[in-house]
Amino acid sequence: MASDYFDGAVPRVLAHRGLALDAPENTLLAFAAAISAGAGYLETDVRATHDGAAVIAHDASLSRVAGRDVAVGQLTMAELRRIDLGHGQGFPSLEDALDAFPDGRFNIDVKDERSVDGTVSAIARTGAASRVLVTSFSERRRRRLARLVPGAVTSVGAAGVLAFRAAASLRSSSLAARALHGARALQIPERTGPIRLVTRRLVDAAHALGAEVHVWTVNEADDMVRLLDLGVDGIVTDRADIALRVIAGRS
Questions:
Q1: Residue-wise pLDDT tens for the chain (251 aa)?
Q2: What gap in Å lies between CA 180 and CA 191, rounded to an integer?
Q3: CA-based diameter of the chain, in Å?
Q4: Would 6 be classed as within a structural domain?
Q5: Distance between CA atoms of residues 248 and 209, nearest Å
Q6: Upper half-sphere CA count for residue 22 (Cβ side, 13 Å)
Q7: Does 63 reside within a domain?
Q8: Active-site residue (options: 50, 58, 87, 181)
Q9: Number of independent structural domains in the chain
Q10: I want to staple 118 with a disulfide (CB 3.0 to 4.6 A). Which of 54, 137, 160, 189 is the partner?
Q11: Inside any domain, residue 169
């Protein structure tokens, strides 16, 4: 099955953990708010529960989002659904989210190795491979996901990003293609430490190989405008509402 993840016009707005203005992040309510605002993509994170399900959660611990000093992986999916995150929301599973938004495109960051099997199973059970991008900080895990979820697209892991930046600096298309290793996107911060990642040269090198550049996490309108002027294809943002207004104003 061919992916339709990149169907539609650029630039793309990827709602980072949904739109959490009046909803807890990474919940069905936050995803619904993002879609209602007009975002075409939901960026999210998955971890493994104690019983092996893929649960939507960014942090390894519940301390920040629920005030409980317990690890996500210590609780079952049923227990996590009952955690009160506010506004009547608990932790959804990845399968819950894919089922709840059958037309939504999901950008899924698989946080650790234990999360891989549950992620693959959830995508298979919902038949969602053509509308997901799966990625990971670990380039090795990203490549494993690419093999296990045929039909899905991927974005480059951290090692691949640095290799691609070096290749772009050297103007070596062969090295850049090797760094992509089949990935269709580079999803990157503007900088990592002292290193500027997002440059016109890097964007042009990605485009020459048919890949997109998505920048995270960008919440200020002026920064969005500056990055769009460089030619980036997507903005990953906590403020999908602002990004949509910026893009509408440029069209």
A1: 689 999 999 999 999 999 999 999 999 999 999 999 999 999 999 999 999 999 999 999 999 999 999 999 999 999 999 999 999 999 999 999 999 999 999 999 999 999 999 999 999 999 999 999 999 999 999 999 999 999 999 999 999 999 999 999 999 999 999 999 999 999 999 999 999 999 999 999 999 999 999 999 999 999 999 999 999 999 999 999 999 999 999 98
A2: 19
A3: 52
A4: no
A5: 27
A6: 6
A7: yes
A8: 58
A9: 1
A10: 54
A11: yes
Tell me if residue 58 is catalytic: yes
Q: If you compute the radius of gyration of the chain from its CA atoms, what whole number of angstroms results? A: 18
User: What number of residues does the chain have?
Assistant: 251
pTM over 0.70: yes
What CATH number does residue 33 fall under?
A: 3.20.20.190
Residue 205, domain member (yes or no) = yes
Give the CA distances from residue 244 to residues 133, 147, 176, 241, 247, in Å, rounded to whole numbers and listed in that order. Answer: 21, 34, 31, 5, 5
Tokens of 212: 């997109």
Q: How far apart are CA 209 and CA 177, in angstroms?
A: 7
Name the residue range of residue 151's domain: 12-250
Catalytic residue among 16, 50, 87, 214: 16
* DSSP assignments along 137-196, one per residue: SSHHHHHHHHHHSTT-EEB--HHHHHHHHHHHHTT-HHHHHHHHTT--EEEEESEETTEE
